[in-house]
Target: Oxidoreductase molybdopterin-binding domain-containing protein
Amino acid sequence: MNPEQTEEPNDGRPIGRRVFLGTLGLGALGVVAAPPLQRGLEGFLGGIAGKDPTGLTGLLPNGGGFRYYSVAASVPHRGAADYRLTVDGLVDHPRSYTLAELRALPRTRLVKDVQCVTGWRVPGTPFEGVRLSHLLDAAGVRSSARALRFTCFDGTYTESLTLEQARRPDVLVALRMQDKDITHDHGGPVRLYVAPMYFYKSAKWLSGITVTDRVRPGYWEDLGYDVDAWVGGSNGRTDEPTS
Ligand SMILES: Nc1nc2c(c(=O)[nH]1)N[C@H]1C(S)=C(S)[C@@H](COP(=O)(O)O)O[C@H]1N2
Ligand SMILES: [Mo]
Model:
């Protein structure tokens, strides 16, 4: 099947020392990132937006400019035999997809910049997968639905989108990244890809999509990040450190 392709130019913003600041922020979060810290962290993150945290393990640059992030210490490997994606909640037809079933659905390919909230960016990165709107249409979203909650088989990470955001054509349940099947480290076999938002919205190791009546903030959002994480238009980015 021929994937559809969209390309957009880079927005041209420099990242410079933000990568360095991001590393500092990660260290700071590492010290405090244990379950009881949620309340205090909101202020903490509010003060350091831009040089922040977003990952507790594996801040390892690789050749492509990505850093691998996981808030879980270890994540089980899943593949064609045992991967499942469940779609449930306020839908008429809840169901669970195997990897083969997802791979058989119409694909969309997008090539855009990946932008982490800590400042690093990878220009022109291809993602390919099934439009989230396609799965929602298949599920039959009920009229009381307003939002989605995403869960991951790392057992920890969560994300959210409004229904309106989720129906955008540039939001994918991604099967491929950089024109290869998504590796385990990048959240494979299936991750969310929310092109217009900071990369923390793109939940890795996606295992559940639950349609809900309101937005329930996700993992980083509980720690102070914007739920509406539009690149350039949310609290993840400041031009200079605020402290
Ligand atoms: N399950 C899960 N998804 C996640 C994260 C995570 O820690 N766990 N980190 C997020 C953040 S902050 C970023 S920048 C990207 C990193 O994706 P990568 O590891 O493929 O570079 O994944 C996002 N999705
Ligand atoms: Mo991130």
Observations:
- The first strand starts at residue 4 and ends at 7.
- The mean pLDDT is 79.
- Residues 54-55, 66-71, 116, 152, 154, 157, 186-187, 199-200, 202-205 surround MTE (ligand 1) (CB under 6 Å).
- The domain at 84-223 is CATH 3.90.420.10 (Sulfite Oxidase; Chain A, domain 2).
